[in-house]
C-alpha cells in the first residue's frame, strides 16, 4: 500500500488565501501587518529562506522589511536595531534569521525581541509559555506540522509520537505541541542508541535531524504518519529530506515529501503569526 502524500503546497495555499483576507481587513482599517526580518552575514541558505519569507508576505498583502547586516556587524548594533523595531508601530513581527555568525549570542538577540512581536516563538518567555500550555506564538515549523496533521484528521491523543531531533527550532517545540494534544511523546536524536526500536513504535514520526535519508523503511511502523522536516541539498544540487522517501512511502499511512511538504507550511505559519500579532496590536489600540 502506498501512503497518502501530504502536499504542503496545497494546504499552505488554502491557509494563505484565508490570511490574505485577514490582511486585507486590517489594511482597510488602516493597519498593514508588517514583518521585519534581520539577516546577518551571507549564508546562502539563509538568504534564500529570507527572500522567500519576504516574497510570501508581500503576496499576502503584508509589509515586509529585510535588514541585511554584514557578518562583521557588532552585536550591539543589531541589538539597537531590534530595540527600534520593538517600538515601531508599523512592525508587528520581528524575526532574527538563524544561524547567526559565531561572534553573536543568539539567545541575547532573541531575548531582546518584544514578546508580542516574537512571531518565531523563540523568546524564552514564549518558550516557557508553550511549555505551560499558554503559548503567545507557536514556532512556525512545528505549527505547520500540526496544521498538516489537522488537515488530514490524524489522531494525536493517546498516540505514540516520536520526534527525532532536539533543536530549539523544531524538535523541542514539536514535542511540546504533540504533548499538549495528548500524545505520548518520545524525543530521540540521530545518536539515540537503538533508534529503530523507538521509531518502529511510532504512530507519528517527526524527523528533523539534517541527516539525508537516515530514516529507512525498516525503521517505520506500517501505516505510520511520517513527517519529514529535513531539507538537505545533495552534491548534485537536488533536495532531499531526512526520510528515504520512496521506500518509506510504500510502508507509511501518510507521508510528507521534500520539497513541497513542511517547507511551505513554515512560511505560511510565520505569516499567520504576524497577522495574529497585528490583529492583537489593533485590539490593544
Ligand atoms: N533558521 C531555520 N529555520 C528558522 C526559523 O524558523 N526561524 C528563524 N528565525 N531562523 C531559522
Structure description:
Helix 1 (8-28) packs parallel to helix 10 and helix 6 (140-151) packs across helix 10. The strands form three sheets. The chain has a six-stranded parallel sheet with strand order 1-11-8-7-5-6. The mean pLDDT is 97. The chain folds into two domains: 30-115, Leucine Dehydrogenase, chain A, domain 1 (Rossmann fold, 3-Layer(aba) Sandwich); 140-263, NAD(P)-binding Rossmann-like Domain (Rossmann fold). It is α/β, with parallel strands linked by helices and 285 residues long. It has helices spanning 8-28, 44-59, 75-86, 106-111, 124-131, 140-151, 171-180, 195-199, 245-249, 262-284; strands at 4-5, 34-40, 63-69, 93-96, 160-164, 184-188, 204-207, 225-228, 232-233, 239-240, 254-255. The protein is built from ten helices and eleven strands. 44% of the residues are buried. The chain is globular and about 50 Å long. Strand 9 (232-233) and strand 10 form a beta hairpin. Guanine (GUN) binds at residues 95-98, 120, 140-141, 169, 266. Guanine binds at residues 95-98, 120, 140-141, 169, 266.
Short description:
Helices cover 41% and strands 15% of the residues. The protein has helices at residues 8-28, 44-59, 75-86, 106-111, 124-131, 140-151, 171-180, 195-199, 245-249, 262-284, and strands spanning 4-5, 34-40, 63-69, 93-96, 160-164, 184-188, 204-207, 225-228, 232-233, 239-240, 254-255.
